[in-house]
Specification:
By secondary structure, the chain is an alpha+beta fold. About 25% of the residues lie in helices and about 35% in strands.
């Protein structure tokens, strides 16, 4: 049993929630509201990004809700969010994965990286992002306030879509998927390979 709340369509993102500001070495240097972190060119803050595979080796994609301030209705990886003030990364990951998708997963940390991406005049992402791979066979229960649609695709299918229609995907997902392929191919192969029948 876990102590996580049941997945629902409750509002789980707040503009005034305090995020963790960091320097380029991921040292915590303060806190700022989520809205302020994403204003203008963005303030560097801690974040995470999860790639979740099912038992068949397919990767989960979510289409971001139309209510999202940045990149609404774009396709992205399973879950992306932030630890809040006073929250460690395992807490934040477990909370958000369950709030958005009703999932639990053991996750493998791959890397951290910094990126900045501007979304028109609306605001920016400027994040020091921790990237993980995981697998789950739980039933998906989406939070409609966060996710407009979702689907599983093979790694090869995702490669084709990214090549043919890159503009429909979030900028961080494209950066992360490329680096996973280039630097963590063995881990990707392990998660993307369907288990052999015995």
């Amino acid at each position: 049993m876990n102590n996580l709340p049941a997945a629902s369509n409750e509002i789980v993102s707040f503009g005034d929630e305090k995020l963790i500001l960091v320097d380029e070495n991921d040292n915590e240097i303060g806190n700022l509201s989520k809205d302020e972190c994403h204003d203008g060119h963005g303030q560097l803050h801690r974040a995470f990004s999860l790639f979740i595979f099912n038992e068949n080796g397919d990767v989960l994609l979510q289409q971001r809700s139309s209510q999202k301030r940045l990149w609404p209705m774009y396709w992205s990886n399973a879950c992306c969010s932030h630890p809040r003030r006073g929250e460690d990364m395992p807490e934040a990951i477990s909370r958000r994965l369950y709030q958005e998708l009703g999932l639990t997963s053991e996750l493998e940390f791959l890397f951290k990286f910094i990126y900045q991406a501007q979304y028109d005049e609306v605001g920016s992402e400027h994040e020091l992002c921790w990237v993980y791979l995981g697998r789950s066979s739980d039933d998906i229960v989406v939070n409609a306030n966060e996710i407009a649609d979702w689907r599983f695709v093979s790694a090869d299918r995702l490669d084709r879509e990214l090549a043919e229609e890159p503009g429909k995907f979030t900028p961080w997902m494209k950066l992360e998927w490329l680096r996973i392929q280039q630097e963590h191919g063995n881990a990707l192969h392990e998660f993307a390979a369907a288990p052999r029948e015995t």
